[in-house]
């Protein structure tokens, strides 16, 4: 089922705004479920993407567990003798991290259901300057690049006889921090070559660009957009009106 790129961009934008407007745990749970549902509607293949992005999911789980175990403020929920293991603040922070970044990741997966040309075309038709639209899509293009660079670096370490899975958790986190240096260096090299390629092709020489193709909203797109806006406004009224009444 094909949807207009502008609808997908609007859906991701509404999800992102909702994440920052309502950072409470119940609200984040609803936003994550809505993100997953929209991903299914827009054609995200979660099983294949989970296999591909497993390291990012593992990173979210590790960060959440670290906050759960190392934040000691708040009421103690689980203790080992006199030593607090899990507190209310640690549990809240871990849940926030898992829900917030999982929602962001699902929003990114929705953007991957479009090609770069479709996304740029959608942004241009929304009125975004083409320079900014192109830079936005380049940023999304770096997401799979980081994944591939990270996988290549992990594979290179494993070929040298290092079994990362057998390393203790504390040392494994240190190894993952060392992996960031070659990944970032590869990203900087790619950005440099990309900038040179854009300059040789005369990018930005003209103030306006024309499009060979244009998108148009179908009745199905309008229905989904109306539902999204209605849910967003309903959620906004539920959250804002009680506060206004109290004030």
Q: What would you note in describing this structure?
A:
By secondary structure, this protein is mainly α. It has one domain. The chain is 74% helix and 4% strand. The chain is built from nine helices and two strands, in the order ααααββααααα. The chain has helices at 5-21, 25-42, 46-52, 54-70, 88-111, 116-125, 130-159, 169-200, 219-246; strands at residues 76-80, 83-87. Strands 1-2 form a two-stranded antiparallel ribbon. Helix 2 runs parallel beside helix 5. The longest helix has 32 residues, at 169-200. The N and C termini lie far apart (46 Å). The model has no long low-confidence stretch (mean pLDDT 81).
Question: Could you outline the blueprint of secondary structure elements for this entry?
Answer:
Elements: H1 5-21, H2 25-42, H3 46-52, H4 54-70, E1 76-80, E2 83-87, H5 88-111, H6 116-125, H7 130-159, H8 169-200, H9 219-246
Antiparallel strand pairs: 1-2
Helix pairs in contact: 1-2, 1-5, 1-9, 2-5, 4-5, 6-7, 7-8
